[in-house]
Design brief:
It is a single chain. The chain is an all-alpha fold. The longest helix is centred in the first third of the chain and has 24 residues. The protein starts with a helix and ends in a 10-residue tail after the last helix.
């Protein structure tokens, strides 16, 4: 049984955790409080687009960016 997806899942979780920490502790203190919800909304839209693109690649049988077949 192929469990390589678990390794890739953990790598993605670690990368997203580091990115969240960078945004929260390094970028957000510089952004004015009134603009912070807009910054989080933009980041959320970008992540949603990335999720939809990745899902379309996996489910649609397209070229895989993470795990080549």
């Amino acid at each position: 049984m192929d469990f390589s997806w678990i390794i890739w899942f953990l790598v993605v979780v670690v990368i997203l955790s580091i990115a969240f920490a960078i945004v929260k502790y390094l970028i957000m203190p510089v952004v004015p409080p009134a603009a912070q919800p807009a910054v989080w909304a933009i980041l959320g839209v970008v992540l949603l687009i990335a999720l939809l693109y990745g899902a379309s690649q996996v489910l649609g049988g397209g070229h895989h960016l993470i795990v080549p077949h």
